[in-house]
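Lay summary. Proteins are chains of building blocks that fold into shapes, and those shapes determine what they do. In this project we predict the shape from the chain. Here is one chain we studied, written as its sequence of building blocks.
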Amino acid sequence: VMENRFDMDDTMTPYEEALLNPRKIAPLPPEKIDSETLWLARAIFSETKRPEEQVLVAWVIRNRVETRYRGQGSYRNVVLDPYQFSAFLPTQKTESYYTSLTPHSRVAGWKTALRIADHVRKSAPDARPFTVDTRHFYSEQSMSNGSAPRWAEGRRPINHLPYTVDQRRFRFFAGVTCVEGLRVRHCSGALPIRES
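And here is the predicted shape, written in a compact code that computers can read:
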């Protein structure tokens, strides 16, 4: 459930008002959607169908692009970076579904994801809901055994988000840095993660 971060006296932008009721978001004309916005929309739509969560996930991905996290400097490369976004693993059935989404796709909630992706990409940096080093999140509900990923061990999730997000659905983390080497990823403050 999303909680409005604004007091009754504050003025919300039309975009923020639309987050309270996603059906109010006007769809973007397909010709206005570039490939980078499309990749961002695919990623946030694969992670969640809830608009307030999509906004936060989109900012995590933008942070990765802007900081060239793991050497990736485009939305497409960040999304397809191995072992980063589970829906895009080549072994997953979801990979072909999400990569097939286009600006013309007619799927419930897809137009909202496209609008959110476009908005986050074009937003000023000071609209960022958390620091630029917030590049990680996970969902307890999607973890096979319900436990945190190893990179999150001993770390506290960000508590001050602009929307109320159920921590069983998403937890966001700042300051996680991973170094690649011989199929072993070492994340600061965590044990090495072996990738198969």
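What the prediction tells us: The first strand starts at residue 134 and ends at 138.
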